[in-house]
Known about the structure:
By secondary structure, this protein is of the alpha/beta class. The protein has seven helices and nine strands.
Amino acid sequence: MADRPYVLVSCAMSIDGYIDDATEERLLLSNDADFDRVDQVRAGCDAILVGANTIRRDNPRLLVRSPARRRSEALPVKVTLTTQGDLDPAAAFFATGAVPKFVYCASPAVQKARERLAGVATVLDGGDPVDLSGVLADLAARGVRRLLVEGGSGVHTGFLTAGLADELHLVVAPFFVGDRRAPRFVGDGKFPWHAGRRATLLQAEQIDDVVLLRYALSDRCPG
């Protein structure tokens, strides 16, 4: 589809499929070598998207960390999705990085979000509920050709069940979380890939003590 960006979904999870534990402290699933790989992937994208829960829970900066990559690449803009519009304007997502920040908000909360985030982000009406296809079309119109989706669980589930992902980078950490209170990679849903339609595995690579699995999810993926 030419009317939307190329969508790359990226996630690190435990052996049993969790992307965090149930504590307030962020769980580090990856390692330095893989963080550098992700940094390179970020530098090659026009935008990075996370959900509002990820901003509240992890307070991510979503920056390209390498100075060399920051000098040689156009920095990706930041994108988030919210239903309630209750985001903290002092969160690192808004307070770091001299790049545009776009907030796609459910229609009933747009005015509240615009008042809260005035001066730190552009708040856009994403529909009710937020329509991912519409978000992608709007990003494409703004020049975003390649979008990196970094979570969390609800966002991953939304993009994957809607068939709006072209590629998946899934990193598996060498341990278990074992706590059903913790968030998983995806929630329940009807996914386009199942026992009768398998995703195409393009790459399996050991990166120190984690494993990267790279899947093609559409015919747009170059392989």
